[in-house]
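Sat 14:20. Reprocessing the chain from the morning session after the first attempt stalled halfway. Input below, unchanged.
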Amino acid sequence: MNLRTVFLSLVLLLFYCQLHSQTEEDFFGAKLESDTICYQYKFNPGDTLIYHVAGWDSISIDYDSPLLRTRLERYRIVCDSAIAGRFFLSQTLIHYAAKESKDGIDGVDRSQSMWVGRTIWFEIDSVGRRYSYGISDSSLVAMSPGGAFNLNLFFPFDAICKTVNESWRVSSMDELIENGMPVTILRQTKLFRLLEPVDTLGYSCSRLTYINTGQGSIELSETGIAKVNCVINGHGILDISLEHNFPVHLFATVEQKLTIVKKNKVEIPGWHYITAHFILEQYIPAKAQ
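Finished this time. Tokens:
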């Protein structure tokens, strides 16, 4: 083996070592490897969280002109207990105010809702999967201000650790007691993507973005309507505190295509568009109470 061959072999060996030891940037400055980020839900019994919700609705039934509504809500969520990695959370709507407009009539104020003061509870695990639920009075029929297919803060994401820009899909069938009584059933699929961590509202957070599709239904035997079916499409961005492991902020929007089935089998079409921000207003840890 001559000196030229030896030199060329050494150069190739050094190039190979440099290529395989380089994890942050390639030779053009682009990242080759993303960081792994871990996130999950974790609550201690007695933890209390207050969320402020700003929502915007556009509702049209049977091709009528839309009802436009801006609503402000506050929810109190308390961890009642935690058992074997599952958390029992109670949720209460403690404030509601809205302005509505339709057919040129603007600024009609609303502050009454049968859902104010109602306490519901549901059981989830560290990745948002649901297991059981209940309500303080199951005999009282009422809907949340956002309706039977309202946006929800808690939903399954089924992953604890992912790399930045990694995508994954989650399918679930959820009974959404937060939306009213009787309970809405929603079959949905979300395609998630993990983004770079962010600092928001004073918390360092992991950030998950998603698009979702689904089909839902609700039985309304107590009214003149037999049931309502719904096809949904939407997207959202969820921020979870890396330190405290609770949701800090959710932005979400959804399009609902409704089919209202009356008891005489007549079907009426409808549309409901919702955009909302769920913003953590106050966190009261159990030890501070």
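The mean pLDDT is 88.
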